[in-house]
């Protein structure tokens, strides 16, 4: 993956730096654009030569070079014309192929590199960023660069070549009047720069508004059940309409300014064209200029006109691309990563003993979540962690998986601070079953295999049987090949949970962490999950975060949290006998008392 070391540079410089691996393609694409334009500018000269032949006959330019017969001159000119048009077509084909290939390579590389870089950021980064805005960068902004490389880069090169070639024709063929065509050029360049400066912040606003629209759409599509259950369709329609209107107005602001570019450029070119038309015409009438040369000057002035009028559209593409480049490079320059450890560890080497030593933790915003936490989870033990909502249970899971780092103290795994281990090795050593089960759009077998992609179907079935998922899977229309839908929406909560457990079993980690795995299932499903846990917890450290105390009743040890602190610990029977927090929770859940 490429990194972008040129932070703070102009976005074009950053983009060119990113294109370094494709230097050869860029050079060839540029060469083919230049050659195509050179051959494209030849027809006005050929027309001038044709007029010269008809008017001057044997005294024409070709006649002076040895082709005396005007008919032979025309046949020769026809042959040259055919060759020029053939080469123009060949180079047009080549530059289109190379620029479009370059656009595809670039957008593919940018999207994959940016996504890969995004995955390396710590979890806190995603809490502060809208997923819709990130999607807009990965999709819309990358596609904007693709469109610029498809067309805009070639247009800029060819406009530059047009100005240089036609300017040279005027200077060398008619220096006495050629300056008239070149006088508007400084004003055109100044106007282009001025428009760029004005358009740049406006296009940045457009891209930001596009990100907000995308963000809200992603949120709404993910929360469609909530929207419908509260009858909030009209409210969300208005919200989307408002954001879309803001995006529309931001674009209209850009359109009004960018649309003025072409008419202004046209007026400047018109002044140069009229000057050539009149003064060169007078010289031709006075016999000071040949008719053929006059024809060439008139035609090349026109050829200068149309590319420059298209410059507005090209600059429009350019500014959109630069706004997108700023957003993409801004993401690539983001460095919010947890420092990786240096100690490698294989899952089979893990014994699974955890120690919390004076652990403190808080998120970026808000107060402390865990306070002076001290506890030991024995290797191979099954432990339960319980407590009221907000007690810090799920935060402990995030620390164990090293999604976050402690803000004080340390967590030891087998006697070593987990921050010393390589993060990927640490993750491979633990299997997490979250309360928020996420299934990918795909088949049942693909979801169980997720993370263990090379597992055989026999291993998948064995894991499903241990998770007590095999029976219901076999009742599905396509059994293990059944498509579960986005986020597994075609399955019940209990079915999704058991597939998630099967996925963790297939991974076969020495440490298994279940975060509220029974919080959203019925009693029958909970009983099935408990039977699964009894099977899979053997010979591995199993940490069960639970709201339902029945889930951890048979654990080797239970830790009770209250307000981020360890309040009680012991076995189920020991905690019941203490008549403390756990006992009160047990009486509430067992129906002995009501609250």
UniProtKB/TrEMBL annotation:
The keyword ATP-binding applies. Keywords: ATP-binding, Coiled coil, Membrane, Nucleotide-binding, Transmembrane, Transmembrane helix. It is a multi-pass membrane protein. The chain crosses the membrane at residues 28-54, 74-95, 153-171, 177-195, 264-285. Residues 28-320 form the ABC transmembrane type-1 domain. InterPro entries: AAA+_ATPase, ABC1_TM_dom, ABC1_TM_sf, ABC_transporter-like_ATP-bd, ABC_transporter-like_CS, P-loop_NTPase, Type_1_exporter. Residues 233-260 form a coiled coil. Its main location: membrane. It is found in: Cell membrane. Residues 354-588 form the ABC transporter domain. One of its GO terms (molecular function) is ATP binding. Gene3D superfamilies: ABC transporter type 1, transmembrane domain, P-loop containing nucleotide triphosphate hydrolases. PROSITE patterns: ABC_TM1F (PS50929), ABC_TRANSPORTER_1 (PS00211), ABC_TRANSPORTER_2 (PS50893). This is ABC transporter ATP-binding protein/permease.
